[in-house]
Design a protein that fits this description.
Number of domains: 2
Helix content: 40-55%
CATH superfamily of the largest domain: 2-enoyl-CoA Hydratase, Chain A, domain 1
Number of strands: 10
Number of helices: 10
Structural class: alpha/beta
Shape: globular
Strand order of the largest sheet: 1-2-3-4-5-7-10
Largest sheet: 7 strands, mixed
Radius of gyration: 18 Å
Distance between the termini: 38 Å
Length: 254
């Protein structure tokens, strides 16, 4: 299944509850342009509607995860992908939704990172629950190099992942780090020689678990970002009560 344009978009292949999602503009290192942004939006909507979905693996086709925003888009101005001010997707604009949307999916998302993972591409990867990178992958919060700031949700997605002073330094300098250094800094979960194969193996492990428990666990993990300890404690109790009730019901029906 393909979303976006024929030469710039997103593909999805599903099997056994796992969605293999790939940014698909390999000739341009999956650089983001309006067609790719639209493809991500459409792919997220499709995945959100999949009742039997258990896990998502997000990667880039070809030699890189994503080189970030296409320089042609930057040359014509960020507004070429739509106005940034209006909240078109809940609390986010369209570009922010392309990163935050992965975190908001009801199932775990694993990003497999190889080659370049720059700017907006890195922000999209940060939307994943888990990031597995090749040791020689190159990652950068690139925006300052172009006189910009990261504006696809990085400040929300990275605040509990990367130490604040480390995040500031990476943003201020726009320097590139390897997959191995990214693991040390907290940008990625771990490194693997074949990150896509590792991500698929992890997805299969997750897909073998209780779908209800995994979805509840993701809701609670997302709630950690809300900053209200009392509400999070209540959410834990509510989710567990629902799961126990479901297990008891299943036992009685056997």
């Amino acid at each position: 299944m393909r979303f976006g344009d024929d030469d710039a978009g997103v593909t999805i292949a599903t099997a056994d509850g796992i969605a293999d999602v790939r940014l698909d503009r390999p000739a341009k290192l999956n650089a983001l342009k309006p067609a790719v942004i639209r493809g991500i939006e459409q792919a997220l909507a499709h995945l959100s509607d999949m009742a039997d979905l258990r896990c998502v693996v997000l990667s880039g086709g070809g030699r890189s995860f994503s080189a970030g925003m296409d320089l042609e888009v930057l040359a014509t101005g960020a507004l070429s992908i739509g106005p940034l001010g209006p909240r078109s997707h809940g609390k986010a604009n369209l570009a922010q939704h392309c990163a935050l949307g992965w975190r908001e999916l009801p199932v775990p998302v694993i990003a497999a990172i190889h080659g370049h993972c720059f700017g907006g591409g890195l922000q999209i990867a940060m939307g994943a629950d888990v990031r597995i990178a090749a040791p020689d992958a190159r990652l950068s919060i690139m925006e300052a190099k172009h006189g910009l700031v990261p504006d696809m949700g990085l400040y929300v997605l990275a605040r509990r992942v990367v130490r604040e002073d480390v995040l500031r330094e990476l943003i201020f300098t726009a320097r590139q780090v390897s997959g191995e250094e990214a693991q040390t800094l907290g940008l990625v979960t771990r490194v693997a020689t074949d990150p896509l194969a590792e991500a698929m193996a992890l997805a299969q492990d997750i897909a073998a678990k209780s779908p209800a428990a995994i979805r509840a666990a993701k809701r609670l993990a997302n709630a950690m970002d809300e900053g209200d300890g009392g509400a999070l404690l209540q959410a834990e109790s509510d989710e567990q009560t629902a799961l126990i009730d479901g297990l008891l019901k299943a036992m009685r029906s056997d």
